[in-house]
Amino acid sequence: MEKLITHPIIKELLDRYKIIWSLSHVASLAHWDLQTYMPKQGATARGEALSKVASLSQKLFLDNDFVSLIEKAERESGLNEYERAIIRLLKRALKYYQKLPKEFIEEFTKVTNQARVVWEEAKEKSEFSIFEPYLQKIIELCRKKAEYLGYKEHPYDALLDDYEEGLTTKEAEEFFNSIKERIISLVKYIKNSPRFKHEHPLEHESYEVEAMKQFIKKLLDYIHHNPENLRIDSAAHPFSMAVGPGDHRITTRYLGKDFKNTYSSTIHEYGHALYDMQCHNDLCYTPIWGGSSLIIHESQSRFWENLIGRSKEFMNLFYKEIHKTGIPDKHTLEDFYEYLNLVRPSPIRTEADEVTYHLHILIRFEIEKEIMEGKINARDIPEIWKNKYKSYLGIEPKNHKEGSLQDVHWSEGMIGYFPTYSFGTALSIMWKNSLERDIGKITELIKTKEGVAQVKEWLRNKIHQYGSTFIFKDLVRKICGEDFNAKYLLNYLETKYKNIY
Q1: CA distances from 445 to 65, 307, 317, 433, 455 (A)
Q2: Other CB atoms within 10 A of residue 413 CB
Q3: Does the structure show a pLDDT above 70 at 1?
Q4: Are 402 and 130 contacting, i.e. CB atoms less than 8 angstroms apart?
Q5: 269 flagged as catalytic
């Protein structure tokens, strides 16, 4: 089989890069442990260690011989698309390390690792004041980061680009402006429907946690063929982490009731993990192994969560099994389908339905943009948050826990991340249209393990195998034959939910 990477200069470069990759591998394990099993009092020491690892990675990247090798490789002719992508990603990382001072990287790493643990305490107690000084420090560091990295039009551009290569504030504004009014209008339509419900009985049904863990195992057994490369654990905020080839980890949470929370989180995080799992083996230990595009990554998690997990056909495979967790068998398949697709304004983003979800992201986008413009500081956020939720969703958070403390992102310094969730969700519908054009209806394919394998193979061939070879805009044009847009998302939401409601 022909190898993807053959150029001797690129191979020499990757041999040097493997030390940097190894540090990242160890740091990933430390981050995973931090968010799952580490004793809380270990946060300061872990932050110190990770800050030094980050500093060492920077030192290795800025080594004169390594920089010269990158520059030499860039001048080479005859590189293939994978080899050019390796140079692109290395230059991108090099720019990051050259522009951000070593002291800044250490401070940012240390502050965010401490803030992550403080955020957990603040959220648990629903006391914003505990987290406020840490958040203010993170805001100041993010503003500094934007100035160090540089930008053409808006300071927020630097942070958006940090999470999604090439994404700008202008593009994000255009996207949200294109969906805002139609989604608000659809929410009003649903709220005025006689079928609208403020709650569903299945939200209040309790389940046995150990039995639910067995159910989740059966669910994963159906969609995933190799238990040797995936593990699942519990975390306060579900996440996925690709530690390295063959070592993929997802987390979910078990609340003891509201089964949808665990069910959807698990399928969502599996979509992330699958993207990394199905990257071409030749790209292992390179900068383009796995998905660096958060928009493409989110398109995969939302593809599985929404287009598969919320479908009646997929739920039909499992709803009898779910009764074994202690949920009464009086609830029919129709009840479960209605429950999984219940639309109603709620304060929690991770529990939001497909329709209102984008308004949650819009609110965060608008707040982050104003943070980067210097119009908002940490102390202002709870009140602004409350007012925006009242304006867009017609509700107000009852406390800080279900308000501005609900997300982990800001505690980890991830200002600029949120817009990728909406972009990725819109992109998942573009993938759906292309897949169904090629191999048939998803809802029919998922009725069998063989059909699920066909879906995964299509995703592998069209998206996953490339890892980070292409930026999201180029991959969309390559696979869909058109530029990224929101029209498919809007048509999908309006068709599906006007039919339900």
Answers
A1: 52, 12, 12, 14, 7
A2: 23
A3: no
A4: no
A5: yes
The reported pTM is 0.92
Which pLDDT score, from 0 to 100, does residue 66 have? 96
**pLDDT above 70: residue 289:** yes
Alpha-carbon distance of 427 to 273, in angstroms, equals: 18
Tell me which of 164, 205, 269, 354 is the catalytic residue. Answer: 269
Structural domain spans, the chain: 8-152
Structural contact between residues 286 and 14, judged by C-beta atoms closer than 8 angstroms:
yes
In this structure, what token pair is assigned to residue 230?
A: 């995936």
Reduced to 3 states (helix: H, G, I; strand: E, B; else coil), residue 60 is helix
Q: Backbone phi, then psi, for 315, in 5-degree steps? A: -65, -30
- Alpha-carbon dihedral sign for residues 14, 412, 302, 369: negative
Calculate what percentage of the chain has a pLDDT beyond 70.
100
- Which residue type does 37 have? Y
Angstrom distance (rounded) from CA 292 to CA 166: 12
Using a 10 angstrom Cβ sphere, with 0-12 exposed, 13-18 middle and 19 or more buried, the burial of residue 398 is exposed
> 343-392: per-residue pLDDT in tens?
999 999 988 999 999 999 999 999 999 999 999 999 999 999 999 999 99
